[in-house]
Design goal:
By secondary structure, this protein is mostly helical. It is 73% helix and 0% strand.
Length: 140
């Protein structure tokens, strides 16, 4: 597959066609990383929704069904999955609010886009910490 366009006559060099040509041609930018993270968290939320549905079905099926699922939720991998899912939910929410401002035509300049990107990441981390602190405090 040819990743470079044919250079016009007299052109100093060929240019890449795709930003996936990392290295000398392309450098990751915060905006592209956050966009990719938004898509990944959307996929993660879809998978988490299936797990949430399984949890609800086990809960509705009675104590025996729930008892078979509960140890997995309490295990380290279950807690890690719940933490990751909660962060994905809160990041997707914060970045979605950022996108709503873009839909309104606000925040397109590079400095504002970077500030709002950092704010979305920071807000998602703070909110995730707050949710887990509240959950752990309630559990104790």
């Amino acid at each position: 597959m040819n990743t470079k366009s044919a250079a016009p006559a007299g052109s100093p060099r060929e240019r890449p066609l795709s930003p996936f040509m990392l290295g000398q041609y392309y450098r990751f930018q915060l905006t592209s990383v956050l966009s990719f993270a938004h898509r990944l968290t959307g996929l993660g939320l879809s998978f988490g929704a299936l797990l949430l549905a399984a949890w609800l079905m086990a809960l509705a099926s009675g104590p025996g069904s729930y008892a078979s699922l509960a140890p997995h939720l309490k295990a380290w991998y279950g807690q890690a999955a719940l933490f990751a899912w909660s962060w994905a939910l809160l990041y997707h929410l914060c970045n979605g609010i950022r996108h709503l401002f873009w839909d309104a035509g606000k925040g397109f300049s590079i400095p504002v886009a970077y500030k709002s990107g950092y704010a979305a990441v920071l807000a998602s981390l703070v909110l995730t910490g707050a949710v887990w602190a509240a959950a752990l405090h309630h559990h104790l």
